[in-house]
């Protein structure tokens, strides 16, 4: 689906605050509420807007450990292993990658012991050849990309 300038403006409004009312979006974009309702419904139907969510301060909630885990997986079992790892509630992102690793996992943990247990658990999964873990020290930027 091709998006027009109004669609991009609507998406940017929702990225900034997904709780905005249609009336507020209409005010910010200079069109009618009915037009906004129609466009948002179309964006949802086309799966350009997948869900509405909130950004949580996990560190404030006690999840102080955030890691990037690079994994090398053998024998063409990439999707099977990724699906198994993705089912863990501490994992919030799983990516197929090019380069030395086959997949990258990003996860958060309440403490070092929980992180250690998770890493040791995935290291013994069938077809996991190697893991390389990086501790995230500081997050400089983490937000949705605005459309231009």
* Beta-strand share of residues: 15-25%
Total count of domains: 2
Structural class: alpha+beta
CATH topology (fold) name of the largest domain: Alpha-Beta Plaits
Shape verdict:
elongated
Count of helical regions? 5
Number of strands: 4
CATH architecture of the largest domain: 2-Layer Sandwich
Structure write-up:
- With 148 residues, the protein is an alpha+beta fold.
- It has two domains: 5-45, Arc Repressor Mutant, subunit A (Orthogonal Bundle), CATH 1.10.10.10; 65-135, 2-Layer Sandwich (Alpha-Beta Plaits).
- It is 36% helix and 20% strand.
- It has helices at residues 5-16, 22-29, 33-45, 78-86, 112-123, and strands at residues 65-73, 91-96, 103-109, 128-135.
- Strands 2-3-1-4 form a four-stranded antiparallel beta sheet, covered by helices on one side.
- Helix 2 (22-29) packs across helix 3 (33-45).
- It is elongated.
- The chain starts with a helix and ends in a 13-residue tail after the last strand.
In brief, what are we looking at here?
The chain is of the alpha+beta class and 148 residues long. It is 36% helix and 20% strand. The protein has 5 helices and 4 strands.
């Amino acid at each position: 689906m091709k998006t027009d300038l109004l669609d991009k403006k609507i998406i940017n409004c929702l990225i900034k605050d997904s709780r905005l009312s249609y009336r507020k979006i209409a005010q910010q974009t200079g069109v009618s509420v009915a037009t906004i309702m129609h466009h948002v419904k179309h964006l949802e139907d086309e799966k350009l807007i997948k869900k509405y969510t909130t950004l949580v301060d996990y560190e404030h909630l006690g999840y102080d450990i955030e890691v990037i885990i690079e994994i090398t997986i053998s024998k063409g079992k990439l999707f099977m292993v990724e699906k198994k790892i993705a089912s863990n509630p501490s994992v919030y992102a799983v990516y197929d990658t090019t380069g030395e690793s086959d997949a990258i996992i990003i996860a958060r943990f309440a403490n070092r012991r929980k992180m250690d247990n998770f890493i040791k658990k995935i290291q013994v999964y069938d077809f996991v050849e190697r893991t390389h873990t990086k501790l995230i020290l500081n997050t400089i930027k983490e937000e949705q990309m605005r459309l231009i």
